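User: I'm putting together a teaching handout on how multi-component assemblies are represented. Below are the sequence lines for each component of a complex, exactly as they appear in our records. Could you produce the 3D structure of the whole assembly as structure tokens, so the students can see both representations side by side? Please keep the chain order the same as the input.
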Amino acid sequence: MTGPAAFPHEGHVPVLRLGEVLLVTLQGDLYDSTAERLRQDIGQTVSDSAVEVSGVVIDLSGVEVVDSFMGRVLSDVAAMTRLLAAQTVVAGMRPAVAITLVELGLTLPGLRTALTTEDALRLLGAEVSVPSRDGRPRGERP
Amino acid sequence: MTHSTGDVSACLPIHSDLDLVRVRQHVRQMTARLGFGLVEQTKLVTAASELARNALVHGGGGQMECTAVTSGGVRGLRLVFSDQGPGIVDLDQAMSDGYTSGEGLGMGLGGARRLVHDFSVDTRRGSGTTVTVTSWISRPPGPREAP
Ligand SMILES: Nc1ncnc2c1ncn2[C@@H]1O[C@H](COP(=O)(O)OP(=O)(O)OP(=O)(O)O)[C@@H](O)[C@H]1O
Ligand SMILES: [Mg+2]
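Assistant: Of course. Below is the structure of the complete assembly, with chains in the same order as your input.
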């Protein structure tokens, strides 16, 4: 069983900056327009930043479905950030989602994966303190 | 033979972004209620998302009919996506991975077929497209179990 249906998530997904890394946490079921806008927001943030962005972490642990539309958005973000010598890491993809993506035939080129956001940040060498036992929100600044 | 159980059938419109979300949520709820495993739920929801988006983007909008079915004692969920759009001119080409007439990845139709147990397309130039998919809770019934 899954939990109660996540409330439709329309509008804006915040792009958080942690030092040189951008962190995006996706939650629930996204409208196509929201995913589309997220791609633009990330592109804008990466190219406008006065401070260099070395990586983008997309936390998918709260996402139950990734179809070809969302897959394309993720691939586009990866391609975009690669042009600027940055990397995109997808974190926390659910096993059912990963299995489905393989059968759908989406290989998501250019995307690295990590089990958790903490792992993803470590992979990017981000200097972010990783809260562990005290239950503080992940990625919170020290 | 496939029998509809009737009482759990629903018809959802596909005319907007929001309708795609509703389609996914409805299929999720139905598969969960029928007892599909998490992976099978996710596969059918993802296939539904692809087919509903095709009806919206390529077919100019349409609808999804969702019916619980049983066959040889096996329960399943049948989804029928229909639109009155231009139809698919070359179905073999449309089904092949990577073909798109727009700017998609061209993985929707072929991918959806891989994600479900039964898949069929009925399309005619100028009069629309109907895609019917069914997934079963366990294996689809073999020939021996068929009535
Ligand atoms: N309902 C439909 N009505 C008309 N044409 C369709 C329909 N569904 C699919 N097609 C045609 O088949 C092609 C392949 O569909 P498919 O879903 O595989 O790829 P796509 O929609 O172009 O991209 P995506 O990977 O984003 O789904 C489409 O580009 C379109 O030309
Ligand atoms: Mg498609």
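A couple of points students might notice: The radius of gyration of chain A is 15 Å. Chain A touches chain B through 27 residues (CB under 8 Å).
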